[in-house]
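User: DoxX family protein. Structure?
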Amino acid sequence: MSLLTSAAFRVIPGAFILNSGIQKLGMDESSSAGLQNMAATGIPMMKEIPTEKFGDFIAYSEIGIGATLLAPFVPDRLVGMVLTPFAAGLLSMYFGNPENTEDDGIRPSQEGLPLAKDSFLLAIGLGLALKGKDDKKSKKEKAIEAAEEKAQSVRKDVKKGAHKLCKNINLKKLPFFN
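Assistant: Predicted structure:
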């Protein structure tokens, strides 16, 4: 994955998640309780966190995830391994509340549309996490490509030389044409 491609996958979601976390800092207890109830629809153990600390827990988690996405020294695969479970948690809230989906249980209802959009974060996280060996060519593959390029260059030179040679030869002077 090129640097530009990597940045495209990381900068926008990273800034969005970081901003979301910063906005949650200092959340009042009633807002924290509402957020906790929503989170518990997908991950029931969220109820075990004290309500007065839940807002800060989510805020710092989002700040950490957003900062990880934005930090250029953190490898893409590690970033993907951080983003994927976060996005999966968001989607568990989507699927955990029947009001978020149409009758088929998959397509989003109007209420579920904001959470359904988090599927894009899951796709980005998986793409980054699964990046790796497929993107890196082995030394053997690089050597084969270099040899093929050299062979192609030699073929062109030979063809050019053969055409030049044939232009300068009068075929009628050769013994087997007489």
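DSSP finds seven helices and no strands in the chain. The CA atoms of residues 20 and 162 lie 68 Å apart.
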